[in-house]
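We emphasize that the prediction below concerns an isolated chain of 262 residues; any contacts that depend on oligomerization or on bound cofactors are therefore not represented. The input was used exactly as deposited, without trimming of termini.
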Amino acid sequence: MIKKTTRWLAENSETVLKDARHEIGRHLDLPGRRIFLQRSLSLGGLAMLSGCALVDEDSVDSALMKISRFNDRVQGWLFDPNRLAPTYPEAMITRPFPFNAYYGEDEVREVDGESYRLEVTGLVADKHAWTLAELHAMPQSDQVTRHICVEGWSAIGKWGGVPFATFLRRVGADLTAKYVGFKCADDYYTSIDMPTALHPQTLLTLTYDGETLPPRYGFPMKLRMPTKLGYKNPKHIQAIFVTNNYPGGYWEDQGYNWFGGS
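Result of the prediction step, given as a token string:
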């Protein structure tokens, strides 16, 4: 077993360290410290930093997960809730805006807008289910911002809807809670930190480019956050909950960074 483990680490050490250096350096703002950590990290250093003994593939995965969670904490610490993401003129909108999901476009979920009800639970005072008409009656704003995908591409789109901070205050959410979670009609789920939820550009999106949000972009509602990567922007939202218990997410539970800042 020891010989097998040693051989596996020898064969995969560069990949392991590459992943760890990436996780450490991706969001640190101090260039000197970032470069030092990335260049000096060894397998032994990875073990010390994560507190995991690198004895097999599972332990390496555990170490990298701990590095990822460390990255989440650093991103949360660096996040400025008052700093706005860039906005763009409508002439720069990407047409057509790309479809993106964990499934093909031929599998887009169709949600009945007439019977739709948004479930709101957890640490909130008002737990009534919201109709689309009620959501459209709330104050609306729009933004032309860039969607950045973890796969390396980006696109600019125009999104309109209810500022999420306005909605959270309307339902009497506990704004000191740690997390806001989302469950979706396409079986997707994710969660975000409360400071991002209250960011002025975080939007409960009901329209795209001035029209009702199309199914391919998340009808009846998606969360739009230009401060986070695309996989943190859930579509076809059916339920929102406020909690102090870590909710995880579809991709996050498979190893993606939970904070997911762009």
